[in-house]
Model the fold of this input.
Amino acid sequence: MTKSIMIVGVGGQGTLLTSRILGALLCGSGCDVKLSEVHGMSQRGGSVITYVKYGDRVASPIIAPGEADLILAFELLEAARALPYLKKGGRIIANNQEIMPMPVITGAADYPADIAARVQALGADLVTVDALPLALEAGNAKAVNVVLLGVLSRSLSFTEEAWRNAIESTVPPKFLEANWKAFLLGRGK
Done:
């Protein structure tokens, strides 16, 4: 059986590192894994999407609309944009942070109000997380992505040791302590 996780965010939030940690976890656990990254205008604060598929045998990394078991969203508007990809009965885990896209910054558009309520009204199982304070508590504001992985870990059946090995093999040693603490705070420990 194949599972699909879509990671969505804005350039600079650590979505690519998150996909590498997840890939290391899945490969280290004996899964066949396929990853695909879509960068858009990531260097200018645009959307970044990563598809992660895993299971006994995976043919393609691409996730079609209605196929994602889980969506990990680093920002609320990105969670709303990814909603068509969520399968019935799937879950969205979203950082409640709002990052203003360029049309909002320039005044050409307004940031949508009540995104979380709108997503839930459409029937999505939405878990919102105030990840930045947890990352700051862990000692690194940039560890929001690993806080979100900690939250995601509650929905997956991999051991804490497997997660630690994946983080250790992916995160530079000087950032390991803060990232592990961020993961544990997201996991609820």
User: Anything to note?
Assistant: The first strand starts at residue 3 and ends at 10. Strands lie at 3-10, 32-38, 47-55, 68-73, 86-95, 125-129.
